[in-house]
């Protein structure tokens, strides 16, 4: 069974600074996808970034980038130039093999302070 | 605009009553999912459906039932057998099939409160 672990229940950062959220996962699959989802106070789940396991290059979406370490089964999210609108719960998620199911971590609550 | 709608946004239920949460998508996605979200628990999968007229239990299916009679619709019934139904419920969909990349699209959610 796959597991996803987010070891930081809460984090805070000052506006315009950089913050990194951690995620580790466990799987025996060789082909899989990893995701970071954002859930702001509105509770709408929004996809932030996606990484395909067979791609060595780390995914980047504007101010969001990942550090994907396949051997270490680590998938951290870096947010640069943090903005107040980045305040949200962030979930790391995994899907692999023939399984359609997403496995989520328990989330990290990020607060961006002015 | 393509997307997923859930209704109602807020739902109140008396103990012992069954209630049905609606989920509709116009993304032409094959797969649909129901999650339950509790504080500190992340998202837990209740049921999922990969194709019309077929669905499978997720990790916490007890006390819930679903149907998938149409591709666009995947309603969730919370029965009186669910002992602690107060939670936030999220519906999602994904492309499914061989072209899938795992990404799921989420609806805005329904907050269910048992009085």
Question: What this model shows, in words?
Answer:
The complex is a heterodimer of chains A (114) and B (115). Chain A is built from no helices and twelve strands. Chain A has strands at 3-5, 10-14, 19-21, 24-26, 32-39, 46-52, 60-61, 64-69, 74-79, 88-96, 103-104, 108-113. In chain A, strands 2, 5, 6, 10, 11 and 12 form a six-stranded mixed β-sheet that branches. In chain A, a hairpin with a 2-residue loop joins β7 and β8 (64-69). The mean pLDDT of chain A is 93. By secondary structure, chain B is mostly beta strands. Helices cover 0% and strands 50% of the residues of chain B. Chain B has strands at 4-7, 10-13, 19-25, 31-38, 42-51, 54-57, 64-66, 76-78, 87-94, 105-106, 110-114. In chain B, the strands form two sheets. In chain B, strands 2, 4, 5, 6, 9, 10 and 11 form a seven-stranded mixed β-sheet that branches. In chain B, strands 1-3-8-7 form a four-stranded antiparallel β-sheet, with no helix packed on it. In chain B, 36% of the residues are buried. Chain A binds chain B through residues 9, 32-33, 35, 37, 42-47, 50, 52, 91, 95, 100-102, 104-107, and chain B through 31, 33, 40-43, 45, 48, 50, 58, 88, 90, 92, 94, 96, 100-106, 108-109.
Largest sheet data of chain B: 7 strands, mixed
Order of helices and strands of chain A: EEEEEEEEEEEE
In which range does the helix fraction of chain B lie? under 10%
Largest interface summary: A-B, 22 and 24 residues
Helix coverage percent of chain A: under 10%
Shape of chain A: globular
What gap, in angstroms, lies between the N and C termini of chain B?
A: 36 Å
Structural category of chain A is: mainly beta
Total beta strands of chain A? 12
Low-pLDDT regions of chain A = none
Strand portion of chain A: over 45%
Shape of chain B: globular
Mean pLDDT of chain A: 93
């Amino acid at each position: 069974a796959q597991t996803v672990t987010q070891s930081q229940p809460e984090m805070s950062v000052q506006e315009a600074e950089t913050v990194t959220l951690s995620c580790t996962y466990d799987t025996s699959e060789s082909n899989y996808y990893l995701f970071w989802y954002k859930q702001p106070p509105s509770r709408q789940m929004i996809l932030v970034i996606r990484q395909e396991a067979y791609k060595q290059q780390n995914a980047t979406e504007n101010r969001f980038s990942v550090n994907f370490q396949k051997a270490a089964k680590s998938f951290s999210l870096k947010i640069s130039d943090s903005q107040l609108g980045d305040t949200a719960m962030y979930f790391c998620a995994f899907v692999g093999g023939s399984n359609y199911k997403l496995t989520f971590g328990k989330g990290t609550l990020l607060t961006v302070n002015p | 605009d393509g997307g997923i709608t859930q209704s109602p946004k807020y739902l109140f239920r008396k103990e012992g009553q069954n209630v049905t949460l609606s989920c509709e998508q116009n993304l032409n996605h094959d797969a649909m999912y129901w999650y339950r979200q509790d504080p500190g628990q992340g998202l837990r999968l209740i049921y999922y459906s990969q194709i019309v007229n077929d669905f499978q239990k997720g990790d916490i299916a007890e006390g819930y039932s679903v149907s998938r009679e149409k591709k666009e619709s995947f309603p969730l019934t919370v029965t009186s057998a669910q002992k602690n139904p107060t939670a936030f419920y999220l519906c999602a969909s994904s492309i499914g099939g061989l072209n899938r990349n795992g990404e799921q699209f989420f609806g805005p959610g329904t907050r269910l409160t048992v009085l």
